[in-house]
Design a protein that fits this description.
The complex is a heterodimer of chains A (68) and B (257). Chain A is mostly beta strands and 68 residues long. Chain A has one helix at 20-26, and strands at 2-7, 10-15, 35-38, 41-42, 58-66. Classes of the chains: A mainly beta (68), B alpha/beta (257).
């Protein structure tokens, strides 16, 4: 079953029960430096494999970029 | 490690911190970082753009440096705390260059919000390196809440104008209880040397290296200037005086009879 989450403000269809790690992979963000907030709470990197996305989840996906 | 730069109990051999912004390419950045000898390198944290596949900066960052995420883009304490928590949860170090900047023209930091954010982040176990105006009173307050360094600006970010508030920074050096890092506004290696001669513990440079015609050579020049300034400070500069004092003997000149 397909459910919908919001990633950085945009609707994203995911398979029900899909893990956060799988979504990051699909988005082309390696887990090593993907930074994730789920429904306003930061997600520990070691949990990316176990967090299963739920309908309506709001995600912020960030990463390090050049800066001073 | 001789004359180590110690922050929160961790010793670093280099007193030059560098930013990763404004380089023409990640390759140029990688080479300049290597030439700088920096052991602490800042990065920003941003939402990914789902429509673009920009390169991954982390592939170009040296393995043996401490990555220091900053809170650039944050205008309030809450935004800065949120950004730092996100970075730490995602696997970046629990060190943070705290910057809270509401002013887009001069990019001057908000002292009230910075202090609020610093207190919260220290309480949550972060090692906090706040970017501030050169304000000796604020310095004491940041030290009291447990900041690991205090990082006053020399001049506005990217302006390259050097130590514009030298006298305030001198007071901060004199009363510092945690390392003082002059951050932002240094345009030339001589500015960095001047900050170090004054007794700053370290400097943080980005634009002056990244925007140089030859960033690798400029990174090396800053490294040497920081080392020279540190050695000069340790060696003890002579006091300035108004009148001259001859370096050669005052008697026995050849024409004397």
């Amino acid at each position: 079953m397909t459910v919908h989450v919001v990633v950085n403000g945009r609707d994203q269809a995911v398979e029900s029960g899909e893990t956060l790690a799988a979504l990051l992979e699909r988005l082309g963000v390696g887990p090593r430096y993907a930074l994730v907030e789920r429904n306003g709470e930061p997600v520990e990197r070691r949990r990316y494999e176990e967090v299963r996305l739920e309908d309506g989840d709001r995600l912020v996906v960030a990463r390090p970029v050049a800066g001073g | 490690m001789r004359d180590a730069f110690v922050v929160a109990g961790r010793a670093f051999g280099s007193r030059l911190l560098t930013g990763t912004g404004k380089y023409d390419s990640f390759e140029a950045m990688r080479d300049a970082l290597a030439a700088s000898g920096s052991e602490i390198v800042t990065v920003a944290v941003r939402r990914i753009d789902l429509d673009s596949s920009d390169g991954d900066i982390t592939a170009f960052l040296p393995e043996n440096v401490l990555l220091l995420p900053n809170t650039s883009g944050c205008e309030t304490a809450e935004e800065a705390v949120r950004t730092a928590r996100l970075a730490r949860a995602g696997g970046l170090p629990d060190w943070v260059k705290l910057e809270v900047i509401p002013d887009p023209r001069y990019l001057l930091p908000d002292p009230v919000e910075t202090l609020r954010a610093a207190a919260t982040l220290v309480e949550e176990g972060f090692t906090v390196l706040p970017y501030v105006l050169p304000d000796p009173v604020l310095q004491k307050k940041l030290e009291e809440v447990g900041c690991a360094t205090v990082m006053p600006l020399a001049a506005p970010i990217g302006s390259g104008r050097g130590l514009k508030l030298r006298d305030s920074i001198r007071i901060m050096v004199e009363q510092a209880e945690v390392p003082l890092v002059v951050d932002a506004g240094l345009g030339a290696p001589s500015h960095a040397a001047e900050a170090m001669e004054l007794g700053a513990d370290a400097v943080l440079v980005n634009t002056a290296i990244a925007r140089a015609d030859d960033p690798v050579a400029m990174a090396r020049a800053f490294r040497l200037a920081v080392e020279a300034g540190r050695e000069a400070f340790a060696a003890g500069l002579i006091p300035e005086q108004d009148s001259a004092e001859a370096s050669s003997p005052l008697t026995g000149a050849i024409h004397e009879s």
